[in-house]
Amino acid sequence: MWTSGSATTTSLGQGRGAGHRGPSLAACGKGSYLALVAWFACAAGCRSPVRGPGPEVAAFATMSAVEFGAEAARTLPAGSELVSLRWRFRDAEQGVSGRGAVRVTPPDSLRVDVRGPLGFGRGTLVLAGPTAWADPERLVRQVLPSRFLIWAMLGVVQVPDSAERFERGGEGARRWLRVVEPGAVVTTFELRGDTLAGVVRMRGDRLAGRLVLVRDGGGRVVRATVEDLERNARLDFDINNRMPTGAFPVEVWRHP
Description:
By secondary structure, this protein is mainly β. The chain has a single domain (about 30-255), classed as outer membrane lipoprotein receptor (LolB), chain A (Clam), CATH 2.50.20. Helices cover about 15% and strands about 40% of the residues. The chain is built from 4 helices and 13 strands. It has a 13-stranded antiparallel beta sheet with strand order 1-7-8-9-10-11-12-13-2-3-4-5-6. A hairpin with a 2-residue loop joins strand 9 and strand 10. The longest helix is centred in the first third of the chain and has 11 residues, at about 35-45.
């Protein structure tokens, strides 16, 4: 689904812990998208009631890949950043946690370095334009989510790799960008103004996964939670610091 990963000595999926299903949404179907939007508002700390139609009943219009890219670019940071975080991963069998650092250079370069307890289980994932590499590849795929979700956990909208059609809906401060992929997979990005609030991923009429972002009073992401309901797994990022930097050395993006 939407995993790819890195951890300690683990071999696992990504997302939520054992037995967790969230607020009665594991069986969320086509007719319950309004409830899903309400859940997002609550999980993100919003106390006001949800207004207007949810994504399933809102009118979506087709947009071009260029138009989608322009909308997505508004969520990018202004320049290169170094992000420090703690991460936790759980699935139905076990859990693991550690620390990590993310180097971000807009519009399309990102490096994640993670380590487990006491420095064991180090892993690196680099996305640089259309190229990507990981070390060790197997462990990185086990915990970290797929390319577009890693960006989304930092508050940035990126296109899923197999996008076939782009759509948008809503208006004003409450909008959605939607990407349709093969196999009836639909990924919906919820935006409040130019700020990403969360992501819902549907496979046909079934809720496959979701991402919820929590922001501080200044609008910075302080927690990102990805739940993979197909694999019963969860990944959390708690962001401790996000510091603007100058350009990173070119060696940061190269495979050793």
